[in-house]
Amino acid sequence: QKGSLVAPERLRFDFSHPRSLTKKELQHIETDVNHYIDLDTEVKVNFMDQKQAIEGGAMALFGEKYDDRVRVITMGESNQEDLATSVELCGGTHVSQTGEVGGFKITSESSVASGVRRIEALTGSFVKAYVRELEISKKHALKDQLAKEKTEREKALQTKKKLDDILAFDDSDIQSISGTNFLAKIIQDVPPRELKSLVDRLKTKIESGVVAVLSVDDSKVSIVVGVTEDCTKKYDAVEIVGIGAKILGGSKGGGRKDLAQSGGTNTKSTGAAIQAIEKFL
Fold this sequence. Notes:
The protein is of the alpha+beta class. The protein has helices at about 25-40, 50-55, 125-165, 195-205, 235-250, 270-280; strands at about 5, 10-15, 45-50, 70-75, 85-90, 105-115, 115-125, 175, 180-190, 210-215, 220-225, 255, 260-265. A six-stranded mixed β-sheet has the order 8-9-10-11-13-12.
């Protein structure tokens, strides 16, 4: 033991230990302490000579100074041989029965110095209040988590519908510029991570040509350009996406000759970006 605080509703216990306690170890401590509380055994107080107390097995803290005559507290006694007994030199005030403690709940375990750990806990009616608040907090957290998951599912369904709608484009949406097919789409609130796979699927559907998809999400706009394999000798997706990104107020972007991505903040310039790409083609 390295230190302690005992109050009517809480306690702090510092002890030497090289590492943090595991969840299982903390549960074991709680179970043991509550077991002795539930036994409701008598807390005995005796006064005796210090030497006699130490020889009788009483625990004295290193560094503490004791009078020649000491107060010895004994608790947790039982006729069952497998139950240990606590015998300590102590001048503090104690309950008359262990059951009066009412309950024990660890609230934290932490480090206070090198090789010294600290356990903080609640007792009595404060345990019930703490557990009740914990249960309420868990219910709120679960409710928030379920609401979050529902929102995410709804967003995922909305995104899927938008992607399906784009994939179901009409052939009249495809322009022919200098003998090259060009398909451009502007969409709202589709995550950037969905755009590359979308452009790849659109490339497959148009079979030959260039595809540009722009997605506006809050104050940002993402742009992905795809070039079918047969057109990569004539056009470079990185170059094309850079032209669109410049209009959108973004960087040059990056990727491969057949697929490149960039973005910007000029959300109202999506039409101008597509026109710049059309002019380049």
